[in-house]
Amino acid sequence: MIHASLVCQGCSGTLYAVSTNGAGAVLPAWEVDHDHTPASCPVRSLLPLEGAAARIQELLDAGHVLTGPA
User: 40 phi and psi, to 5 degrees?
Assistant: First the structure.
């Protein structure tokens, strides 16, 4: 499933979020990254955000990357 665009705290660039629910998975697996990674983004090293979580905000480093509610 592809989710609505998000905004990066570091560069105000657009991020995408994709989640998948694998067979037997309790939580969805997420991938969040820039649509087009700017070389000057100060949080570039934290992306992509990846992992299993009920919500995007629960991913490691999401609080440093995402602006506002996701």
Answer: -95, 5
Per-residue pLDDT of the chain (70 residues; tens, 9 = 90+): 556 568 999 999 989 999 898 777 789 999 999 988 788 999 999 999 999 999 999 999 999 999 865 4
Instruction: Return the number of other C-beta atoms located less than 10 Å from residue 58's C-beta.
Output: 14
- What residue type is assigned to position 4 of the chain? A
Within 7-69, where are the H helices? 62-65
Cis ω on the peptide bond leading into residue 48 (within 30° of 0)? yes
Beta-bridge partner residues of 66: 8
3-state secondary structure of 9: coil
